[in-house]
Amino acid sequence: MTPDTPKDLRALDPIDLDLLALLEVDGRMPNNALAERVGIAPSTCLTRIRRLRELGAIRGFHADVDPAWIGRPIQAMIAVRIRSDARDAIGKFAESLAGIPAVRDVYFVSGSYDFLLHVATADVGDLRTIITERLSGTHLVAGTETHLIFEHRRGN
Amino acid sequence: MTPDTPKDLRALDPIDLDLLALLEVDGRMPNNALAERVGIAPSTCLTRIRRLRELGAIRGFHADVDPAWIGRPIQAMIAVRIRSDARDAIGKFAESLAGIPAVRDVYFVSGSYDFLLHVATADVGDLRTIITERLSGTHLVAGTETHLIFEHRRGN
DNA sequence: AGCAGGACAGAATCTTATTCGGTCCCATTG
DNA sequence: CAATGGGACCGAATAAGATTCTGTCCTGCT
User: Fold this and answer.
1) Chain B residue with minimal CA distance to A25?
2) Which residues in chain A have their CB less than 8 angstroms from residue B109's CB?
3) Which domains, and CATH codes, for chain A?
4) How buried is residue B152: exposed, middle or buried, by Cβ count under 10 Å (0-12/13-18/19+)?
5) What pLDDT digit, counting tens, does each position of A107-122 carry?
6) What is the tens place of the pLDDT at every residue in A19-56?
7) For residue B134, which phi and psi values (nearest 5 degrees)?
8) Locate the HTH asnC-type domain: which residues (chains A, B) (predicted)?
9) CA nearest B10 in A: which residue?
10) φ, ψ for residue A129 (rounded to 5)?
């Protein structure tokens, strides 16, 4: 994250916002179609999208893969609390967690916990292994609270 | 969600899994490149990907847009508890919540709360409005707990 | 009014997607 | 055991789309 203030909204005009909205819904919409939808030429559209990527407004394009289909039907949100005397190590620790294949998202939050881990595993055994060996088993972790996810749906 | 058992993993071979892994990282990798990476012909690759979409293994392709750049720098995870005498209305209620522009994800979970709402708003005022008017203000909601999100990173 | 900078459009080019016909492999059947 | 049917795959041809380049227009500044 770059510390460039509230992300200078002045840098984005209504057309950019339209492009972002369209690409958020369909990340594979052809450049042609995009250009027509927002009312600019394809070539212009291309440079705008390149710019949005460089700015960081678009962080990437990803297929939304159903975890159940890749052998990870069990999903959970794990709230993790770090020992107060190890708070400065949170960054590195969370980064190492992000490297675990089962981990899909890491949310650093305020409140009774330090971060939330969205994980998808093959079975509850694997889930337990992560919790006991990668979290509770670590001297950095003061406690965890696991919530099984029954269903996950995107907004809009 | 279709109730087709543990998503019949037998339907996916190692090549399919490779394709899913690649597309999850880069949803815009050209079909050409994909085919070469997994060792099949482009035409074959195309039919496989079409099939993965039809099966539901790939739910869609989306640009990962930084909320801060579209005027929503404030993110939060809101834990929502539904009144026990209104549990059967959760589905419709959550669905209506998913329609709010600020809502990015809805997680139905087990534990002390019924679902988690990942929201991104323009300011804390908007966040408050959602909590008081769309959640606490509703007779369905027994309580909420809001955690500001300082940072969100994807796994891997 | 003249000038410089930036953004855009349109045409040309090149890359990529998609379709189509035919081949190979495997399992089933006579 | 050989013939048959089905499925998946490949490669070439075609269609579609991406990308580059050049010239124009608009805007802001002097």
Assistant:
1) B62
2) 77, 147-150
3) 9-55 (1.10.10.10), 67-149 (3.30.70.920)
4) buried
5) 999 999 999 999 999 9
6) 999 999 999 999 999 999 999 999 999 999 999 999 99
7) -95, -20
8) 12-73
9) A69
10) -60, -45
Give the mean model confidence (pLDDT) for residues A131-139: 96
Place of tokens 């509230």: A6
B74-82 and B115-121 strand pairing: antiparallel
Mean pLDDT for all residues in chain B = 93
Element (H, E) at A9: none
pLDDT value, residue A131? 98
A47 Cβ within 7 A of any nucleic strand C atom: yes
Contacts of B126 in chain A (CB under 8 A): none
Q: Which residues of B102-121 are buried (b: 16+ CB within 10 A; e: fewer)?
A: bbbbbbbbeeebbbbbbbbb
Q: Cα–Cα distance between A57 and B65 in angstroms, integer?
A: 6
The answer to whether the CB atoms of B7 and A73 lie below 8 A apart is yes
